[in-house]
Automatic annotation (TrEMBL):
<dbReference type="GO" id="GO:0005737">
    <property type="term" value="C:cytoplasm"/>
</dbReference>
<dbReference type="InterPro" id="IPR038204">
    <property type="entry name" value="Abf-1/2_sf"/>
</dbReference>
<dbReference type="InterPro" id="IPR031770">
    <property type="entry name" value="Abf-1/2"/>
</dbReference>
<dbReference type="Pfam" id="PF16839">
    <property type="entry name" value="Antimicrobial25"/>
</dbReference>
<protein>
    <submittedName>
        <fullName>Uncharacterized protein</fullName>
    </submittedName>
</protein>
<dbReference type="InterPro" id="IPR036322">
    <property type="entry name" value="WD40_repeat_dom_sf"/>
</dbReference>
<dbReference type="GO" id="GO:0098542">
    <property type="term" value="P:defense response to other organism"/>
</dbReference>
<dbReference type="InterPro" id="IPR039694">
    <property type="entry name" value="WDR11"/>
</dbReference>
C-alpha cells in the first residue's frame, strides 16, 4: 500500500493532530480531498498544516520563542473546520486560522498549563492539566471573543510533586456529557465538570500511553507502552443496607498486539471514528515506526 509521506518539517516532529471529520453524518464520504488536514508541530515551535492525500503543505506559522505543548482542532458551531487551538509554553493559548496562518486571538493564563482537552459537546469548555494533580477549567472559549486570563483550578488528588504535572492523559468522555478522565502514572480519576467532583478513582495498569473513549457507547480502552490493550465499561453498585453507591470501571477484556521484540514500544493509539458505532471496532497503534490495526468484535 502506497502511503504519502509528509516531510515538510525542518526539525523533529513532537505533536500531530488530524482534523475533525463528522463521519457520523456521512460528511466523510462527501468531503473534498483538501478538507482533510493534519497539524504537526516540531521541536522548534513551528506549526505546519498539511493535506495528507496530496502530501502537500498548506500553511506554516508559529508563536515567537515558544514551544507547542498541545494542539486541538476547534469546531465552532460547525461553520468551519479551519481553526486550531494550540497551547504554548508560557501558558499561552492561541486560536489560529489554518487557512492563512492568521492569529485570531491569544491569551496568557495566570496558572501553569501543560496539556489541553476540549469538551466534545461544548467547544466553549476546555480543561488543562496544571501543577501536581491539579486541573484548570475554562468556560469562555469562543471564536468571536478572547477568553479571560483566569480559570478555575481544581485539585483532583494530593501529589507530592508540585513543580511539574503528574497528569499523563486528560480525556473527555465522547459518549457522556461532563465526564473528564484525569490519568496519572498509577491512577485514573473520573471528574464531573459540572458538579466539580471526583466521581471515583481507581488504579490502572502501568505505562499507559493512551486513554480512548468511544463516542457511541460506554466503552473505554487503555493502551500500554508494551502493546497491551484493555477494555473497560462503567459499573454501578449499591448497598441495600447503607445509603451509598459506587461508580467504577470494570475491565472485561484484555489483549496484546504482536511485537518483534521487547525493545519495541507503543507510542500512540487512536480509535477509528467510522467503526465506533458498528459491531466491529478498530484501534490503530503506532509501534516503533509502524502502525498496527487491532480489530475488536
Amino acid at each position: 500500500m502506497d502511503v504519502p509521506i509528509l516531510d515538510k518539517a525542518a526539525a523533529a516532529l513532537c505533536i500531530t493532530s488530524c482534523s475533525v471529520q463528522n463521519c457520523g453524518t456521512g460528511l466523510c464520504k462527501k468531503s473534498r480531498t483538501e478538507d482533510y488536514r493534519i497539524a504537526s508541530s516540531d521541536i522548534g515551535g513551528q506549526i505546519i498544516i498539511s493535506e495528507p492525500i496530496s502530501a502537500s503543505k498548506r500553511c506554516q506559522f508559529s508563536h515567537a520563542s515558544t514551544n507547542v505543548l498541545s494542539m486541538k482542532w476547534f469546531v465552532w458551531k460547525d461553520m468551519s473546520r479551519d481553526f486550531l487551538l494550540s497551547l504554548h509554553s508560557g501558558d499561552t493559548l492561541i486560536l489560529w486560522n489554518t487557512d492563512n496562518g492568521e492569529k485570531i486571538w491569544s491569551v496568557s493564563y495566570n496558572v501553569p498549563l501543560f496539556d489541553l482537552a476540549i469538551d466534545p459537546f461544548d467547544p466553549c469548555h476546555a480543561s488543562f492539566s496544571s501543577l501536581g494533580c491539579n486541573i484548570a477549567l475554562c468556560s469562555d472559549i469562543s471564536f468571536n471573543n478572547t477568553p479571560s486570563s483566569t480559570c478555575r483550578t481544581v485539585v483532583i488528588c494530593e501529589e507530592q510533586i508540585k513543580s511539574a504535572t503528574s497528569i499523563q492523559n486528560l480525556v473527555y468522555h465522547n459518549a457522556y456529557r461532563n465526564i473528564l478522565f484525569v490519568v496519572t502514572q498509577s491512577q485514573v480519576h473520573c471528574f464531573h465538570t459540572e458538579l466539580f467532583a471526583v466521581l471515583f478513582s481507581m488504579t490502572h495498569e502501568p505505562n499507559i500511553i493512551s486513554w480512548l473513549c468511544c463516542s457511541s457507547s460506554d466503552a473505554i480502552f487503555s493502551v500500554q507502552a508494551g502493546g497491551a490493550v484493555s477494555l473497560r465499561v462503567g459499573k454501578f453498585s449499591s448497598n441495600d443496607e447503607r445509603a451509598d453507591a459506587q461508580f467504577a470501571l470494570e475491565r472485561i477484556a484484555f489483549g496484546d498486539i504482536q511485537r518483534q521484540g521487547n525493545q519495541q514500544r507503543a507510542v500512540g493509539a487512536c480509535l477509528c471514528p467510522v467503526t465506533q458505532s458498528l459491531q466491529e471496532l478498530y484501534i490503530a497503534i503506532a509501534i516503533s515506526g509502524a502502525i498496527q490495526y487491532l480489530a475488536l468484535e
